[in-house]
Fold:
Amino acid sequence: MTSFGRRRFLAGVAGALGSGLVVGCAAPERESRVQSFVLSPEQSLPGQSIWFATADAHSQGGNSVVIRTVDGRAKKVEGNPAFPINLGKTSARSQAGVPSLYHPDRIATPLKRTGARGSGEFKQIGWDEALDLLVDRFGNSSNPTLITGRVGGTLSRVTEWFASLTGSRHLVHDTLEDSTLRAAMHNAFGTSELPHLDIAHSSYILSFGADFLGTWLSPINYSTQYTKFRSNTSDNGGHRGTLTQIEPHMSLTGSNADNWVHINPGREGEVALSIAHTIVHDNLIDPSISGPVLNQIGGKSALDAYDPKKISSTSGVSEKTIKEIAKDFASHQPGLAIAGGPALAHTNGEAIGTAVLLLNRIIGSAGSEGGVKPNSPATEGTPRPLQANTFADWVNFATEMNSGSDSALLIYDADPAYGATGAAGMKTALESASFIAAMGPFMNDTYATADLVLPATHPFEQWGDFAPDPANGQIVVGLQQPVVTSLLDSRSFGDLLITLGSELKGKDAFPWKSMHEAVKTTALSTYKGGAEAKDATWVELLRQGGMWENTTPSSFGDSSWQISSLHEPSFAGTAENYNFHLIPFETIGYGSGDEGQNPFLQATPDALTTMTWTTWVEINPESASKLGVRRGDIVDIETPSGSFEAQVYVAPTVAPDTIAVPIGQGHRFGSRWNKGRGSDVLAFVHPFTDTAGSVAWAATRARIQATGRSAQIPAFELMENPRNDESDPPVRVTSEQH
Amino acid sequence: MEILKAFLPRLTGRQFLMIGIPAVVLGGGLVTGLAVLIILGATGATARPAPTQPIAYDHSLHAGDLEIPCQFCHRGTDTQASATIPSVEQCMFCHSVVATDRDEIKKITTAFESNTPIEWMRVHRMPDHVRFTHEAHIKADIECSTCHGPVEDMKTVKQVVNLNMGTCLACHRDTNGRSIGANNPHPISVDSAPMDCAICHK
Structure:
């Protein structure tokens, strides 16, 4: 046996290390694996970005985006720079489109209920069985009802066609529907259309609760206009515009305002008429301008009851402030006055909205550049999103269902079991339906009660078109095309209705064979050229994301309202027993709750508090001190309708007698990220309605009790301050100030 | 030497072993490894054997006997940077009717019907710091075999050209001064194969 000396040992080790170095330099095997597509994506150029223009179905108002795709997968959302509404801009909700598209909890296949109704227990089935079930249970029902979200464009025509074909009733659900604003528009301007706000050319904005930079109507469009409003360009007369925001809880728009004025909830109409009183009695505007409209609404003397001296005590806005606002508003022309959000969510919301909108007529800016203008018309083929049914309609429907109506429901993109409609009877009404089929990309409280759940395509996977509401003064149609092929066994709602309608009423029941055909036919309905040029035109329309053209501006009608119609607001709960006004509000992330399943939007910080992932309550420092609660404490908020928990965020964004709680959490069913998270504040507001039939969601009082528990607060601004030691707030709102 | 001694402390035998052994082992390993890499690079040999593919696809049958052009399956090489792995659907263009009873073809059929991607093993791979574009080379009429070897003769494809910087530069130098792209409707002019570092190392 040869001896194994030290030198040979060292040489051997060195050799082994050398070989190891060579092997170690090679790429690991996993990096050499490449997967082939089973089906090659259309128009794919491997490794290259391809951009498609399509609808931004997640943001508000109707915007268009271009989506970067690589190898058949959507990667990034950008604004469509050609589209006249958003002009290349996007919102957090737009950006959440990709995480929503590839969300792991999307409904992947049709599901059939196996457990008790509402248990959320289902088994997977195929589309053939699902369609058989739909035909048998919904198609043969004597009382079929369609419940959808605010569908618009060609999809709304397909839906209405299906409803008339099958004799179905059609109800439209929207958690925060806008009937009050439309009623106010009708009273003030003779039209139920939403207003077109010419913010870019305005010199002064007087906003009562309308968070137009955050969550109200068309915030992306308003934000792009706002940059012009704030610049010293010729658009707004060469000087920076002034924004005055009057509201009980500071919104994102309020935080941008030159003047933020706190007001007692429900008193916005009084202050608006008080401003009108000052303008008229101090002759701040030529009487020949304000006179005609005053005559229509009750005459100059009808404003006498709204002398600023009388109004300051009830509204919490001082006489001096009211007079200053009136003077500024009248002297900075053109100006516009708007009302939205909590200002309209009162028992006198319709009157509040009307009183505010009439200020535009009193100063003479209604319908003119820089003021509130009429909405431009939509095309016949692509109507605007359908107006939602009012809260009162839902209460009636729930009563009918609960009294034993044998109704079969087909639900799409709606969650009436959640929020105020759920608490007002829809939750129990759904349990008594004879059959429920529900279609959507995600599970929600309503779908959990369904007998059959159908997977819907994501907006990036389907054909469609839309008319922005409100538009920008032009006739605008946006187009929606699939930018990726669905990885799931999903179908679009329009295609489902066409398939189902054809099964029930014959293959010629619909004039179109698919949504693709319906959208293309609609878009090219006015086209007169040859087939080849027609195809080229269609491709060009898809490339630019839609079509738009200027139109002759229409004019407003007369006012049909009397000042005497403004009545006192009612509140649920007395001030003695419930010492806080409860103001629910919408956040820029998950909004009214429809987008809560998306972790990107759960983690999008609230604009003012930077809170994420939870339900919090904003409490004035003075009130927090009296209650003995600190930031992070869990409190019990009790209203006359019940109680829920929220985490304290001490902030000067509310007055001492007001608390504010975000809408959108508290889902019993949903994705892994919103199921069982936080509280559904809308389920605890009193089911008051205003005269337009909407729920008065800001007309409830509440009281607070500490639970003794506390938790780390998920605020983005506090990431570097884990101890949560409270520093002095930069602004303090106290009861002495108003 | 005197200076060296002045800086080095006097070492005991034990200290010498504690410092000397690791120094010899690491130094020797590094030298041996580098030598192996240099020898492999100089001879043009590749370090990796032909990888085992999930399906025994025979290039010598398809590209050789049947003379199917490379770009029939590897589409887009003349328009983009990446070569493409054919989709399963593309295999099925022919194999939905051709040789459907063979075991290897059944694997493709199963993958297609179950919507499952096939995990191929990559044969050629440029390092991450190199930007190689197929389009420019194919448009200049460079044969696929220049880099990929005689694939039409290979039952199992193996890397035969060591695609290191030397290989690239040698070809770019040779190309300069010669007319290339004679069959191209837009021939590349002479002296056009760039030698700038930033062409590949962007």
Summary: Chain A touches chain B at residues 10-11, 13-22, 25-27, 29, 31-40, 45-48 (CB under 8 Å). Chain A has four domains: 49-101, 111-172+386-466+475-513, 180-373, 580-737. The two ends of chain A are 103 Å apart (CA to CA). The longest strand of chain A covers residues 700-710.
